[in-house]
Amino acid sequence: VKLNSAQVDLTKVENGLVLSRMALAQVCGLPVHTMLTLADEDAETISATAPIAKSYNMQDVYSAREDLRALELGVKIYKEKENIARASMMPNLALVGAYTFSNPNMFNGFEKKFSGMFSVGAMLTVPIWHWGGNYNKVRAAKAQTVAARLELDNAKDMIDLQVNQASFKAQEAVKTFNMTEANLEKADENLRCAEVGFRDGVMTVDNVMEAQTAWLKAHSENVDARIDVYLCDVYLNKVLGRLDVSTPAVE
What is the pLDDT of residues 12-68, one digit of tens each? Predict the structure, then answer.
């Protein structure tokens, strides 16, 4: 019965693997029946992840985040709009210079040769009364600048929170993985003792099956912990703005 149950579980795992590959191909924009082989699919041990620090220089994180740079650029844009709105309330001075020539010219009768003259002009416009329209434009532009700056500050606070959460979660994932690695040794030893005791006649089949169940659980928890370490490392690099997307995930 246990053997049949294990075979059923193996069939479910194989089917789940096929469906997972199809889902991955769909996410990648490939035909669902594309055969994908992960670069670390046959790795025996987990690859080393980046060191997880207790704290990070948030100024470096801010400079590495593209979304934050976009918000900073938005603040600069609204600040320039504010200057443009303020300029409509300032006096405007325009200088004009020109040179005209003609052939024939009218400076010496209608002499048939090129001749011309310079002309210079100046214009000063001073807004005296604008019924408050320009002042309201300045106030609206200032309000937009303040709103953009508040949005930037709020984004920085959220990034600070994201970095701390991701760092704590990554540290927990590493500790959990190390714990499951230690549990693997204990489960292997427990199964070995159960098999030796069964061969010597001091343990029953139930004891061996319990040891096998514990061994399977320890290995399953180790696989889950290994995956969690990978995911936490990816998310931490993402919130730090140093996620390397140039390395392909599949071969």
Answer: 999 999 999 999 999 989 999 888 887 777 766 666 566 677 778 888 888 888 888
Match domain 37-78+132-240 to its CATH number in 3.40.1440.60, 3.30.565.10, 1.10.10.10, 1.20.1600.10: 1.20.1600.10
The DSSP symbol for 102 reads E
Per-residue exposure over 199-231, b if at least 16 CB sit within 10 Å of its own CB, e if not: eeeebeeebbeebbebbeebeebbeebbebbbe
Ramachandran sector of residue 131 (left: φ over 0; alpha: ψ -120 to 50; beta: rest): left
* Residues in contact with 34: Cβ distance below 8 Å, sequence separation at least 6, in sequence order: 21, 25
> What is the signed CA dihedral for 73, 76, 77, 78, rounded to 10 degrees?
130
Q: How far is residue 187's CA from residue 7's CA, in Å, rounded to a whole number?
A: 22
Whether the Cβ atoms of residue 221 and residue 181 lie closer than 8 Å to each other: no
For residues 240 and 51, the answer to whether their CB atoms sit within 8 Å is no
Asked if residue 248 has a cis previous peptide bond (ω within 30° of 0), the answer is: no
pTM: 0.67
The domain segmentation of the chain, as residue ranges, is 37-78+132-240, 91-125
Is-contact 146 113, C-beta < 8 A? no
